[in-house]
Write a structure and sequence with these properties.
The longest helix is centred in the first third of the chain and has 12 residues. The model has no long low-confidence stretch (mean pLDDT 87). Strands 3-2-1-4 form a 4-stranded parallel sheet, with helices on both faces. The chain starts with 8 loop residues before the first strand and ends with a helix. The protein is an alpha/beta fold.
Length: 97
């Protein structure tokens, strides 16, 4: 019996610039489904017509919830990010767990 590969689902953790949207735009032609997790204050593309969840730097719980909900098999980091001001970081409960 031939084992079938598990279908891939790519989550893109998106920072600034055009790279995250460019990668996402090319994925449907290659087959894997995807979902964008856009970092507020970093991701500056609108990701129009693409599945996207926007989260803040402290939104670890929201990121994990999205990864579980989409059943992501791969996580890709793309785009420019700046070091956050840790004094202004507002972690959600997922950050603590």
């Amino acid at each position: 019996m031939i084992a079938r590969a598990k279908p891939r689902f790519i989550a893109i953790l998106a920072g600034g610039g055009r790279l995250p949207a460019g990668i996402a735009a090319g994925l449907p032609a290659r087959g894997p489904a995807f979902h964008i997790i856009a970092l507020d204050g970093e991701a500056d593309e609108p990701f129009t017509g693409m599945p996207v969840t926007r989260v803040g730097w402290g939104g670890i719980g929201a990121m994990l919830k999205t990864l579980r909900k989409t059943k992501a098999t791969d996580l890709l980091f793309a785009g420019r990010v700046r070091r956050p001001d840790l004094r202004k970081l507002r972690p959600d409960l997922g950050f603590i767990n």
